[in-house]
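Internal tracking record. Fields below are filled automatically when a chain is submitted to the structure queue. Please do not edit lines marked as system-generated. If the sequence contains nonstandard residues, flag them in the REMARKS field before resubmitting.
Queue: standard
Priority: normal
Entity type: single polypeptide chain
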Amino acid sequence: MTEKKDNAAPLQKALKVRARAKSKKPAFVRPESWRYDKFAVSWRRPRGLDNKIRRKIKGWPPGPSAGYMGPKLCRGLHPSGYEEILVHNLAEIHSVNPVTQVARIAHTVGKKKRVQIIAEARKLELTIVNAKEIKAAPEEEAKPEEAEKAKVADKDAKKKAAAAKKKKKQKETKNKKPEKKTKKEAE
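SYSTEM-GENERATED OUTPUT FOLLOWS
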């Protein structure tokens, strides 16, 4: 634990330097994206022989380079200063060190397992970066009652629609006039 306190001051300084560098970094846009609608704005590396951005010609937008990098000490860290660990299951949540690391639940993890991981992280006093509050038990109890009410209402609506359709057909048959036969059909 004393290691964390010793490293805290340089790490905090490095995080501030990284934030300052990021604020000065320009938005890198794809070359000629302002000229053609078919090009998206998202960055693509210029590869052409005469490309002005690749050649760093004055007056053209800048391209990414090593000069925009943040300090080596805080590269790849979460903005809070902790290292992010991707978690897929309960076994992986136990390998997270709460002093230097935070957990991020993978996007492929389902709702059921996500609830278990969040509960286990609370027991271990771990921080989860992308934890959303999920109510598991109360919703499951309420759903069957609501589903039954919806089914009953749906059946009633179907019955009413069928009755209205039947009445409409009966009116059409009453209002129909007998067709007159032509002379050829009469013979």
